[in-house]
Records
---
Amino acid sequence: MKWTYKDMSTVKVRAIVLKNMSLKEKDKLVCLYSLELGKIYVSMKGVRGEKAKLKSAKEIFCFGEFILEQTKTNYIVTGVDIIDNFYNLTKDIDKYYEGCAILDIVDKVESQPNPPLFIEIIKALKTLCYDDVKKYYCICKFLIDIFAGMGYNFITSECSSCKSQLLHKYFNLDFGELVCPACRTALCVPISEACYSSLKILNMIDYEKLKNLKLNEPGTIEAYKLLCKNFEWRTNYQVLDIK
Ligand SMILES: [Zn+2]
C-alpha cells in the first residue's frame, strides 16, 4: 500500500459544533467536540459567503461527520456529512438557551475524547430538540451525569459522612455530597424534599422518558440552582444563565 502525505493527513471525525468565531475574510474558526479526538479547533474556508457549501455546518449544534485535512498548525474542514443540525432548537428560545448551556458545559469540562459523554450530549440535544420536555429537565439530568462522570454520585439516601439515613438533607458544597444535620458545616445548604425527589428521579430516568415526566416545579428549580452552584464549586466556571 502506497502512502501519500495527503492520505496520512486526512481524518474523519464524528463531532458536534460547540461554538464558532469569525476569522479573516469569510473564514470561521469552529470549536468541535469530537468522538475520536475530543475538543478540537478547525477552520472552515469561505463559510460566511451566501452560497458556501459548508455554511450550515459551522453553526452551533451541527452534528455530523467532518472530514479534516491536518496541516502543520491546525485542521481545515474539507467536507461535512450533516447527521442532524437540531434546527428546531433555534425556534424555541428556552430550548435554545438550554442547549447552549449544555454545549458550554462540555466546552468547560472536557477536552479529551470521552465516548460516554459524546453519546450523552447527542441524547440530551435530541431530547431537547424533538421531545416535549419541560424546562430544566435536560440540563439538570446532564449536570447530574457530568458530576457522576467526575466521581460524584451524590444522590444517596444516607449521610456521606456518618452514613446515617438522611431525614433532613444538606448539600455540602465543599465535598459535593449530601450530609445530615449533625454533620453539616458552614458550607452546607439545606435542600427540600421536593428538590431531593427531583434530583433522584432525574438521576434514574432515561432521556427518552423525560417527556412523560412531571416534577414538582419549585423543587426542580431548586434542584437546577443547586446543580449550578455545585458546578461552580467543582469547576470554578458558571453554567450559562438560561432564565
Ligand atoms: Zn451525618
Note: Helices lie at 5-9, 93-109, 115-130, 137-149, 193-204, 217-235.
---
Amino acid sequence: MESNKPKYGIDAPGVIRNLILIGAAICCIVIFFPLVKIGSVSIDTRGLIWSGGGCVFGGVLMLAYSLYGKFKHRDRMLNYIAWKGGEQVLDVGTGKGLLMIGAAKRLTTGKSIGIDIWNEEDLSGNNIQNALANAEIEGVSNKVEIKNENVMDMSFADDTFDVILTNMCIHNIYNIEGRKTACKEIGRVLKTGGTAVVSDWRHVKEYNRNFRELGFQTQLLPARYLTTFPAITTVIVKK
Ligand SMILES: C[S@@+](CC[C@H](N)C(=O)[O-])C[C@H]1O[C@@H](n2cnc3c(N)ncnc32)[C@H](O)[C@@H]1O
C-alpha cells in the first residue's frame, strides 16, 4: 500500500553515507587492530577512535536534522513572517516542497511557488513528482506551483513576491560570483515591502553583505546549534 505520509527526503544522503561508512571502518580498525606491525614498525591505531567516532556522530546528527530538525527549522523560518494569507511566496530550491508546502498551509488566497533544478545528490528522491505528491498529501495542491528554474536566472518579473524563502540551497552554488547573482535575483523578484528569509549552513555572512550592498535592510540571526546540523544561520532581508 502507498504511504500517505509526506516524505521530505534526507539532505546530502551521499555525505551521510560516507561519514558513517568511513567512521565505522576506522572504528573497526581500532577495535580489531589496535596495534599494527609492519616489519619492525609498530603503529598504535587507538588514537584514531576520535576521528572514527566523530565521523559516525556527524553522520548521525545530519540524519537527525533531516528526520526531525528540519521541520522545527521550517516552522521557525515561517514564523518570521507576519502572514496575512494573500501573499505571493517563492521557495528557492524547494526540493520536495518543505517550505513551499509549509507556506501554502498559511495561505488563504495567496500562492506558493517552488523552484528547483533537482540536484539528486542534495536531497534523496529529489524530483518534481515527489514535491507535487507531497503537496497533494498535505492538501495544498491548489495553492502551489512548481517550476524548473535556477535561482541565478529566474523568469519572474521584478517585484513579484511578498515572501521569499530559501533553505540549504545557495551554498550549492560553488563560486562567489554565482552566489552574488543568486542574492541579486532574490532581491530583484522580491516586492518592495517584502521579506526574504535566507537560511543556510555556510556563506550566510556573505549573503548578508550581498543584500546590504544591494541596499536592503538585513538582520543576521545566530546559528541554531541544537536543532540543525550542520548548524544553520538565517538572514532576514527587507526590501
Ligand atoms: C539540501 S536541498 C534543500 C531542499 C529544501 N529547501 C529543504 O530545506 O528541504 C537543496 C536544494 O537546492 C536545490 N538547488 C541547488 N542549486 C540550485 C540552484 N542554483 N537553483 C535552484 N535550486 C537549486 C537542489 O536541487 C536541492 O533541491
Note: The pocket of S-adenosylmethionine is lined by residues 8, 11, 70, 93-95, 98-99, 115-119, 122-123, 126, 150-152, 167-169, 172-173 (CB under 6 Å).
